[in-house]
Fold Post-GPI attachment to proteins factor 3.
Amino acid sequence: MIIDRYSASLILVLSLFVGILDASAGDFDPVYRACVAECEKTGCVGERCFPHCKFLSDSVAAEGPWYMQEPLYLKWKQWDCQSDCRYNCMVDREKEREALGDGPVKYHGKWPFRRVFGIQEPASVVFSALNLAMHFHGWLSFFILLYYNLPLRQDKKAYYEFASLWHIYGLLSMNSWFWSAVFHSRDVDLTEKLDYSSAVALLGYSFILAILRSFNVRDEAARVMVAAPLLAFVTTHILYLNFYKLDYGWNMKVCLVMGVAQLLIWAIWAGMSKHPSRWKLWVVVFGGGLALLLEIYDFPPYHGFFDAHALWHATTVPLTCLWWSFVRDDAKFRTSNLLKKTKGL
Ligand SMILES: [Zn+2]
């Protein structure tokens, strides 16, 4: 009898726990759930009604199933309806909670953010755009330094052996921050996958780059040997996320391992090499490590705008500036070393 009661309560606790793990506290709330279900049926939350939901029910009733018409357009409408319903139910529920003296809770894995012109997380969008601008500025000044300021070889190529690797890095970074800005403006299945995929691609590539630069791998064949297995893994991981399962926990582990590994590689290299700009590496590694803590110690948005994730995007802006400055220094350093060698011969 005791065992029965024990196992029953254990199952109850476990099922509650699974329920909590499965959904955020906010969308677990029956009041919120009822509000969203009602809204998706009627297109209204209280006095506020949303044209997207109206459109959806009209078209389905009048012209047959939505996929028979322009599917992507109608799909967007459906997303708009769901998003409007969820947002307005969340705002109402959060007001009620505040009146009761309760703090904010997460909905569908996200804190309750205030929208600005329909943008879901304005602070994260602004910081993503700033990161994008920083990478563009950094890459452009690197390009100008290489091809206009530093001496070129007779075949008009740069002396710096890692030039093309950094060009690809610049492109992947800008791509990743572009999709980050899009994703934080409007969080739907498609934008989420594009953001995650480009972030994983950038992280994987910069991991390869960290190995190639710190071990000074200059031989083309050796570079391919190092890059191939990692590229294969990263590609498989991206395909897995997109076409099999968007597993947040597993993706977090993969990203954390690749991220920490490259920070360690740069840190050890900065400690061992006599690179003239190694202090910049130290700052970026420590800054990057501290910024990572913001991702781990998640806190709700201040005034509905600045949460841990937005601040994390903010900290990478100055770090990016310093990072490209290191890359430029590295290009100068390697070029002058190579020129000294050729003169010595
Ligand atoms: Zn983000």
